[in-house]
Amino acid sequence: xxxxxxxxxxxxxxxxxxxxxxxxxxxxxxxxxxxxxxxxxxxxxxxxxxxxxxxxxxxxxxx
Length: 63
Known about the structure:
Layout: H1 5-43, H2 46-59
């Protein structure tokens, strides 16, 4: 016999987890912004810029 307790439990469980999606989204966004900042710092360094220019020049046959 189902007295509705299972349904109430599942509804309560779902309601408790509603805020988790927003929190997880926020954490993922912070991680993405941090990763983008790290990539920007790396790719704009003189050493990496030189490597990338050399690769492009070789690919275009200029080197």
